[in-house]
Amino acid sequence: MMQFRTLLLxxxxxxxxxxxxxxxxxxxxxxxxxxxTKIPNFNVLQDxxxxxxxxxxxxxxxxxxxLSGSVYCEDVTPEMSAVPALPKETAYLYARFNKxxxxxxxxxxxxxxxxxxxxxxxxxxxxEDGAFSKLPDLEELTLAENRLTxxxxxxxxxxxxxANSNRLRTQGVKATAFxxxxxxxxxxxxxxxxxxxxxxxxxxxVVHLHNNKISTxxxxxxxxxxxxxxxRTNMDEVRLDGNPVTLSEHxxxxxxxxxxxxxxxx
Length: 266
Hints:
single chain, 266 residues, little secondary structure, nine-stranded mixed sheet, 11 strands, 12% strand
């Protein structure tokens, strides 16, 4: 009887013990390893703080606002010291009130859709001569309130050019710089250091040359001195105030204009 009980116990318990041991071993194999994460010790002083991102390493449309062919990069933080890489479809760029110092040839290379560029109130002192030459459809270019002493070659389809409040000198502006711009309608060169009036295209409606160093003009400056029948029909507004020139000494210089220069004169 005793032997029968031992045999019965062995036949029931042994399979159960083997099954349990196998299950435990399987669980140990499948048990995932714990990931260990290093926790920084904030009690230790760091040598340097992480550097703030610079404007030139951020994507343009994160740094600026890109909206349907227009890019607005006005008064950008962090400071913008160069023209950012622009989307190819950009037609209008507004990058006013920044710290841009130079315009390079590659800044606007192959931007065939560009129609307007406004770089008012930057720190631009140099523009490479071919910077705007590959912009066949550029109509408006504003470089007012910068530090330019000379002008680059300008694109042929310009309608409006504004370089008020720079440091432009006669040596830096070719006499024929505007002559071949047959669509130029508005020309603003006030508050500079020009000593002479450049040749002006027939298309001009408005020309501002106030507060320069122009001391003399001739019968050829605005008119054609060899004929009294010539009328400059397009010209609506001329400003020469703030220059050391006495208009009364040049009575024939404005005979072709429909209105005398505006402003206060001695």
